[in-house]
Amino acid sequence: MRKTLLIAADVDASLRERALEDGRFDVTQTPVRTEDELAAIVGDAQVLVTRAYNKVTRRVIASAPRLELIAQATSGIDNIDAQAARERGIRILNMPGINANAVAELVLGNMIALTRTIPFYTREVVRGTWPREDCATRHELRHFSLGILGLGQVGRIVARLASAFGMQVRAYDPYITDFPNATRVPSLAELLATADILTVHVPLTEETHRMIGAREIAAMPRGAYLVNASRGEVVDQSAALTALADGQLSGLALDVFDPEPPRTIFPDDPRLILTPHVGGCTHEVKSAAGAKLFEQIRTFYA
């Protein structure tokens, strides 16, 4: 029996091509962005292919009475109402770690950009100035202690790359026992107290929501740096911006926001790096994700 497969996101063409070649799927590709748009098109879909920006809410699920499978071409699934899916017996497939290397590389790049004040230098050279006088006050990464909150697949790659730079790497993660390339610390408080740079790599759950707020940022060494490439809701964005303004933070890099796109008016500050949730978005990730996700779909219906 043929299955109706709806691709509601920007996914590599290999997924559609393989689904059509398989012969068991009637494929429709209609990328949408909003919950209203998704609810309007999901209709008779039995297989729904999404990305993290698709809000697969209870309402969307209710609009798809034949839905059997949600297949998401990303690692996190916090955009999906998993409880509503479970109540209907709908299976959720995702791809843990598919973009881990890409996210880790962006994190390392942001760490270098912040600590070497690259955005500041770029602005000054564009303005026609040549501010080299105090360049020797900047430090190499090996000068800094790195705190990693969450040592999952992304956190582990960050730890490995940071170790290659000679950084002192510490990590807090109460759900694992092995800490490759990082020294385990027993509490978040201890991690914060020693982190010249803090990078966040936890999933969004009730436990991690606003895990890093004003109190936690204040517990870091004054002049520390904060990088968030996990989920916007994990860090209190307003508190982080306030800490940047008053000098508690020397630099802040955000690739994720709450909500997305953000509605905040951000300061024009060279100590602030903002990217539109592109940490896991590379050619390598996208080209691999389509084929790998369809393989999971094919296996589900084998």
Features:
Rossmann fold, single chain, seven-stranded parallel sheet, alpha/beta, five-stranded parallel sheet, elongated, 302 residues
Q: Would you kindly provide a written description of the structure presented here, covering whatever features stand out?
A:
By secondary structure, the chain is α/β, with parallel strands linked by helices. It contains eleven helices and twelve strands. It has two domains: 3-98 and 283-300, Rossmann fold; 100-274, 3-Layer(aba) Sandwich (Rossmann fold). The chain has helices at 13-22, 35-42, 58-62, 82-88, 100-115, 118-126, 153-164, 188-194, 214-218, 237-245, 283-300; strands at 3-7, 25-29, 47-50, 69-72, 91-93, 145-149, 168-172, 183-184, 197-200, 224-228, 249-254, 272-274. A seven-stranded parallel sheet has the order 8-7-6-9-10-11-12, with helices on both faces. Strand 3, helix 3 and strand 4 form a beta-alpha-beta unit. It is elongated, with a radius of gyration of 21 Å. The model has no long low-confidence stretch (mean pLDDT 96).
How is the topology of this model organized?
Elements: E1 3-7, H1 13-22, E2 25-29, H2 35-42, E3 47-50, H3 58-62, E4 69-72, H4 82-88, E5 91-93, H5 100-115, H6 118-126, E6 145-149, H7 153-164, E7 168-172, E8 183-184, H8 188-194, E9 197-200, H9 214-218, E10 224-228, H10 237-245, E11 249-254, E12 272-274, H11 283-300
Parallel strand pairs: 1-2, 1-3, 3-4, 4-5, 6-7, 6-9, 7-8, 9-10, 10-11, 11-12
Helix pairs in contact: 1-11, 5-7
